[in-house]
Amino acid sequence: MISINGKEFQYEPGRTILDAARDAGIYIPTLCYHSCLPTQSACRLCLVEVEGARTLCASCSYPVRNGLKIQTDTFRVLRARRMILELILQSHKLNCVLCDKNGTCELQRIAYDMGIEDSRFGSRSRGDIYDDSSFSIVRELDQCVLCGRCVAACSEMMVNGAIGFTGRGSDSRVSTAFFEPLKDSSCVQCGACVAACPVTAIRDKRSERMGRSFEMKKTSVVCPYCGVGCTFELNSRDNKFIRVTMDEPSYVNGIMTCVKGKFGLDFINHPDRLTKPLIKENGTFREASWDEAYGLIAEKFLTIKKEYGSDALAGFSSSKCSNEENFLMQKLVRCVFGTNNVDNCARLCHASTVAGLKRAFGSGAMTNSIDEVEKSDVILVTGSNTTETHPVIGSLIKRAVRYGKTKLIVVDPRKIELVDYSDIWLRQRNGTDVAWLNGMMNVILSEGLADMDYIKERCTGFEEVAEIIKRYTPEYVEKISGIPADDLIEAARLYAKAGRSAIYYSMGITQHTTGTDNVLSIANLAMLTGNVGIEGGGVNPLRGQNNVQGACDMCALPNVLPGYQDLTNPELRGKFERAWGVTLPDKVGMGVVEILNAAARGDVRGLYVFAENPMISDPDTNHVREALGKLEYLVVQDIFLTETAQLADVVLPSTCFAEKDGTITNTERRVQRTNKALDPPGEARADWKILCEVAGACGYDMDYGHPSEIMDEIATLAPIYGGMSYDRLGEQGLQWPCTDKDHPGTKFLHKGKFSHGKGIFHNIEYKPPAEVPDEKYPFVLSTGRMLYHFHTGSMTRRSFTLDATVPEGYVELNPLDADRLGVKEGDYVNVRSRRGEIRTKAQVTDKVDVGSVFIPFHFAEAAANVLTNPVLDPIAKIPELKVCAVAVEKAE
Amino acid sequence: MVNGSADEVDTFIRTLISYRSMDRTKTIEILQLVQHKYGYISRDIVSSISRHLRKPEIEIMGIATFYEQFRFNKPGDHTIKVCEGTACHVKGGAAIGQVLERELDVGHGETTKDGMFSLERVACLGCCALAPVLVMDENIHGQMDTSRLTKLLGKYKKGEVS
Ligand code: SF4
Ligand code: SF4
Ligand code: SF4
Ligand code: FES
Ligand code: FES
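The joint structure predicted for all components is written out below.
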């Protein structure tokens, strides 16, 4: 028991007086304290009187213990607090009239509560630095109260280290390393400092004076970009998006985001947004009514179905849209089109994960949770440039390494940012992953580091694998992969000896003709060391799109029904047939790349593309264009007239993430609610509504009043979502499997036992990539993402900050190669493969090895996928986007 | 003092850190040793320490700017130290400092564009009797006033003293 202001309260050990007071509903003002940041103890505003203590104590750092007697509002406390506040106010330019923070400013609130209008010491504003060099952030040091929150956010939370305190005493201020403008510093515009600042000394630049905090409607939304699934408050006013704030820390990301979520959402208001259905006539679009568009789609699709059969139709679902919408899309294709030709862009990123992990563990998702990053003893990151593609997880990894006990192994052909934090970096040749993975296992086995009890008890198939692995000695692996034998041995020991080792991977592993093999090898390695089914361990594929996990869970996939239920199983199919009142096709359908091939052959004639852009995202653009051109009927449902929509016969204007309710499943299987903040522009309609109406026009009744009703249907059909409903999801969401109403959700998978019983080892031999460099095409090209853009750029390139920061595409070229080709930084080069050629700017950097080049795929005018090789992994049908051979030469 | 190229600086710092098994806790010691060798803490130096200690540049600058002992500009051919102690202050030391800043167009801790003078503020030099005091390189000049100051600078500028 402790007593606060004479009343007795229970307390939890290990917490502070401030925590205890807040739990008890007693207000203590604070300025430098933030629940998501390490304690600063800088402002002293939180002073309280503790019986027996000589001086007043800062409650934010004073641990509670039994019997403490605390007073929060004695005369002594109030007098001291008043004095401190006046000193603080002295250095803060009081400007509430013009301040965007008006209403949520923490300083304003404290001054208001204490009835202080101004500092009796006058103003000490020193005409200090005003820095608006950054595209997204303004720093105005005359507003700064030196609380230190931005510094903690930048260095200790995000581990970006762009700003810090310099100088001392009255010269002390927040600055960049060499006092340069923020734009020239190492700032990555993550916005954490903005979110952390209690006042307005670091603020959002693009929305300055577009509305004060108290005028905003704030809606909690899930970020529309990557699979981390950050949530934040979308501020709007008069149905216009204004800015993103994080007044209430959210469950997954606290107050962390990356630049895309924080400053990359202005595409919402973009004038290019589609507002009316478009119908193509004689090669040009005209505006049309919804009824006309629906009528036409129904007529064309039903005719094709009648004349050529159901399998002449196909649909691409969207991993950017909600679970409910993906559920409806696959329902539309299966029930109305009558085919299983439905797929989503997971095909292009993690199809091999789903295939591989399903085989090995019985479940194709990230085994563990994001908040376990800091619990791992060793993290092995391979084929994931985490700090750019999943920046919040990237920051957690950096934090675990820099401030925690975690050791980091990076295996990547590129010298990515995480290499700077790694204990060991293995630079393998592109496409040699099975070799080094087998090599690590070889070392672990021969040194007796394998977890034999775990293998015996929980896995099968180990003996054969052990046989194969014998050949992969470190020396042999060195020959294939270029990884020095000693480094491999060291990495293997580090990984195997730690108590909890986690593997994080992404497209560098999956986008290969051996994608499934790579994933299976990773699974082998994790099982060999007993690292699956424990907290802080696991095999963790980081999913790309914000809802690519959900699109897969809803099984907008050609071979499974919602909840990964095998559609060739008559019993499971029967369950769906009864619920939907149709006979479902029992033949496994085609995936994205196969559908396009079939279209090129004339076998698929009608295609419904739901918020996808295969023209940019899929390999071999010229082939995609040809295939789409051959279609009899192409329907595209999207928010912009994308490169794909331009080829369509009908374009349906839909809503963006902020204009509808729904649920989104992030990379850690967490189903989170996202809420409608804005009305859609013009006549655009919510995607789930459109899909229902299309089904209706085709004569199939799909009627729901609200997405929550769709979720209720999902819960009855897909056992892994069985316990979910909008009411239960609340603020934190739930992680599947969540099988019934009382199930708390699942933090990490395979505890005690694998989803399908025993973990299965697979025999995997190394196979070289499909296309290797030769004399004519001497460079290895890999494609991928970068921090400031996303996917095909249709959203990010319409967001001011992102577009201004990186306005055009580029190719990364090693300095030695650049020298040989006579190319300097910023020169244009032609990059050519057997399939096409693009012109783009050279970025000379030792990030890529000699003989390798890297091109981000977001830029339509220099589309990397003109070059890529559409050969597929035989099991997962994922194309080899990470290796192809190209030639590079200086352009005129 | 040595003038080092970025590469040379980097090699020096790398060896310093690895051979003396310096780690992150020894940032100040490293800064001192490097300043001793190069005379000041340049950007290259900070970048290099940051790389080898795996600590962001801003943290190194944060430490370096906290202590008076570090300088961030290449010292001029001549270093002028103006005493800021109480006695000197009372006798007009601050004015001397201001005149210098104006004349040379530099702030404290900076070096003139031509690289001839750098200006520093120091605490009591222990010769208060001569206040206000200024030290040019190793020579103490007492009872400074504006005209003596101008004369003194003139001598150096004309190259009469070096
Ligand atoms: S935006 Fe991010 S990286 Fe830039 S200063 Fe703020 S916290 Fe640091
Ligand atoms: S800029 Fe804001 S967060 Fe940073 S120290 Fe100043 S008041 Fe605190
Ligand atoms: S893109 Fe990913 S990391 Fe960035 S804010 Fe969105 S969900 Fe978070
Ligand atoms: S809130 Fe406790 S010292 Fe600032
Ligand atoms: S105060 Fe200047 S020498 Fe003592």
